[in-house]
Amino acid sequence: PKISTNADFEDGSHEVVAGAKIVDEVTYEGLVPEKEYTLKAELISKADGKTVLGKGEKTFTPKKSEGKEPVTITVNDDVTEPVEAAVAFEELTSTEVNKDGKDTPDTTPEKPNHVAEHKDI
């Protein structure tokens, strides 16, 4: 499976600062239809490539193996000064199937299967 992303501000937000919302539209392919997946998104500062500015999470069950799923990222309250450049990182996990699409009945939510990620600065 693989994922790619296109992040944009939600209506009313126009800069990366506390409380702003960014909608990260994740395009996926190679998933198993009717199995549950979780997308975890982090907004990362481009300045150092590691400071987490905000987070979002969405659990979904795709009808087809490819499609799009929006994840809303809310900027952390401690981001008091607007950030010039940020990038969204995503990780796709599942407790129902592994990256090869095989069922994994013994997997727990605390240790889900890593299915795919997108972490390009």
UniProtKB/TrEMBL annotation:
Signal peptide: none annotated. Residues 91-121 are annotated as: Disordered. It comes from Corynebacterium tuberculostearicum. InterPro entries: TQ (IPR041100). It comes from the Bacteria. Residues 97-121 have a biased composition (Basic and acidic residues). This is VaFE repeat-containing surface-anchored protein. Residues 1-121 form the T-Q ester bond containing domain. Pfam families: TQ.
